[in-house]
Amino acid sequence: MLKGKVAVITGGTRGIGNAIAKKYAENGANLAIIATKDNEKAQAAIEELKKNGTDVKLYLCDIKNADQVTSVSEEILADFGGVDIVVNNAGITRDNLLPGLSIADIDDVIDINLKGTMYVTRSFIRNFIKRKGGNIINISSVVGLMGNKGQANYAASKAGIVGFTKTVAKEYGRKNIRCNAIAPGYIATEMTAQLSEAQTEELKKQLPLARLGKPEDIAELALFLASDRSSYITGEVIKVDGGMYV
Ligand code: NDP
């Protein structure tokens, strides 16, 4: 479905981003993976992605640093000759009730989740306009739509992504650039592994589908949104949450 396309995926070495990267590579996409860590695990993930036979490169970049984003995006454009798809997946949590959130907890979450998404998108828009098309997929969260105790910083960052997504869809629809967001519920990754077994069990009870989601559940939608099969969908926020929002 993505043969010959070039996709940039932030946070593509593990978790949801890695599941999306796998799905894209299996469908013929070349990948520019952005991450902060170049450890053994990250290298193994990149080697695994390469097995699909497409071009896969790892770029080290802290997306909250605008200068790093600018230089890495220029490097990616030079290496691949252009980009078709950007997936803004990288994100962090720093949870606490509002008085317990430090200034750094607030700044880091907003800087990485929201500003990082804006920096990365902004750095590829001109290329999309030049190529007369492009596709942006932002990973928000159901928490950004419904709020969550202990996640004021995170929920605000994910709600910000919703406004950003809709605005980009409006600004660039005429240039054949689509922009959509996915709002996952609880997905089993290192991010949610911080929850205790009791917390996880309690959560499951509240979910109509009574289980946590898998990174692949998000990757399936990310593939559909990146492909021409969704060519008339833009400005949407689609939940993949086991019914959590219901
Ligand atoms: P993980 O913690 O498993 O992975 C986070 C990824 O983001 C890593 O690849 C990491 O790369 C990257 N990353 C973090 N900070 C930066 C940074 N400053 N610059 C570049 N890359 C960075 O998270 P998940 O896979 O669970 O989450 C992925 C996305 O999905 C996030 O945006 C998250 O908010 C969202 N989400 C997750 C849910 C869940 O239940 N898991 C639910 C709803 C939304 P590295 O290791 O190199 O630092």
From TrEMBL:
Physiological role: Catalyzes the NADPH-dependent reduction of beta-ketoacyl-ACP substrates to beta-hydroxyacyl-ACP products, the first reductive step in the elongation cycle of fatty acid biosynthesis.
Protein name: 3-oxoacyl-[acyl-carrier-protein] reductase
Domain of life: Bacteria
Entry EC no(s): 1.1.1.100
Family, as annotated: Belongs to the short-chain dehydrogenases/reductases (SDR) family.
Cross-referenced Pfam families: adh_short_C2
PROSITE patterns hit by this protein: ADH_SHORT
GO BP annotation list: fatty acid biosynthetic process
Positions of the catalytic residues: 154 (proton acceptor)
InterPro entries in the record: 3oxo_ACP_reduc, KR_dom, NAD(P)-bd_dom_sf, Sc_DH/Rdtase_CS, SDR_fam
UniProt pathway annotation: Lipid metabolism; fatty acid biosynthesis
